[in-house]
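Hi V.,

Quick status before I head out on leave. The structure for the redesign project is tokenized and pasted below; the design run finished overnight.
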């Protein structure tokens, strides 16, 4: 099974598409990712219910450092 982490560019695209109210499935198709991966990323990168690429990247870096 191949797995690649989300890049900061993908996280920025995610943030924009969420603000445009795209669904997880639509975003997944656009980015070439499974919709469940999009949903997990949204959950991990959200603060106060709003997805932020900056918050998501910081959380990723913190998880990697542990």
């Amino acid at each position: 099974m191949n797995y690649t982490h989300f890049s900061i560019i993908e996280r920025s695209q995610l943030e924009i598409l969420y603000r445009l109210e795209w669904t997880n499935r639509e975003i997944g198709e656009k980015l070439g990712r499974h919709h469940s991966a999009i949903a997990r990323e949204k959950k991990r990168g959200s603060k106060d219910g709003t997805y932020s690429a900056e918050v998501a990247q910081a959380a990723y870096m913190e998880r990697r450092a542990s």
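Above is the designed sequence. The helical segments are 8-19, 24-31, 35-44, 53-65.

G. will cover questions while I'm gone.

Best,
W.
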